[in-house]
Amino acid sequence: MSPRLPFFRLSALVFGFAFLYIPILSLIVYSFNKSRLVTVWGGFSTEWYVRLFSNEQILNAVWLSLKIAAVNATGAVILGTLAGLALTRMGGFRGRTLLSGMTTAPLVMPDVITGLSLLLLFVAMEQLLGWPQGRGVTTITIAHMTLTLAYVTVIVQSRLSTLDDSLEEAAMDLGARPATIFFVITLPIIAPALLAGWLLAFTISLDDLVIASFVSGPGSSTLPMVIFSKVRLGVSPDINALATIMVALVTLGVVIAGILMARREARRQRDIQMAAG
């Protein structure tokens, strides 16, 4: 092995991590800045965290975004799982190509087009059916669900395509009903994929700015919309404090999800080995 190769790999690794995480680290450091100027260090202080928790506009936006993201992720997992099951288990039924294309189209559709089309749809539905009345939490949740169920469908479909059918066939031979097979065998096996899809849908909804801007109304500003409106007038240190808290929560959630998924996968592999033995 060439002696320069490890140095090259180490340099590439350091450069890659620095490129990705130095902006985040600088944001975290300046969230403890005493100065009102976000790029001028004036000493250590937690003043902006105290001010953040007394800012009702930001707190209301955080609570609204969390509610929308949770409802959206749950709905996207249900619809995405049904779509994934239909595409994987129902064979070549009529309309399969159309369903596959419609469920994956939001993956490649620009957010501006998706947001504009949903806005026109909601306006037309309000004129024809009287629902939804105006734009708000309901329209944002539906719009996010339209986008994120595509990601969940791809994840669930990928997991189901690699599922060992012999377990379900053995259960059927023993007289188990299809619903029992799904809830006792299939659902626990694909649970890590469902969890991954839920987390991805939750994160996408929490991060979305473009689509929410099209389908939101008065009194329904999400957190990204509030942050963007504040940044346009100049970055304030309390935004750094909010971003630091979000980074900490996301990191904690990713670590916990990773540990749970690793333990579940280890248990599944152990059960498979015991069944084979």
UniProtKB/TrEMBL annotation:
Cellular location(s): Cell membrane
Membrane-crossing residue ranges in chain numbering: 12-32, 61-87, 107-125, 137-160, 180-202, 209-229, 241-262
Pfam families, per this entry? BPD_transp_1
Entry keyword set: Cell membrane, Membrane, Transmembrane, Transmembrane helix, Transport
User: Which CDD domains did the record assign?
Assistant: TM_PBP2
Q: Which domain of life is it from?
A: Bacteria
Kindly list the biological process annotations in GO that this record carries: transmembrane transport
Q: How does it sit in the membrane?
A: Multi-pass membrane protein
Q: What PANTHER family does UniProt report for this protein, alphabetically?
A: PUTRESCINE TRANSPORT SYSTEM PERMEASE PROTEIN POTI
Similarity remark: Belongs to the binding-protein-dependent transport system permease family. CysTW subfamily.
Q: What is this protein called?
A: Spermidine/putrescine ABC transporter permease
- Native organism: Steroidobacter denitrificans
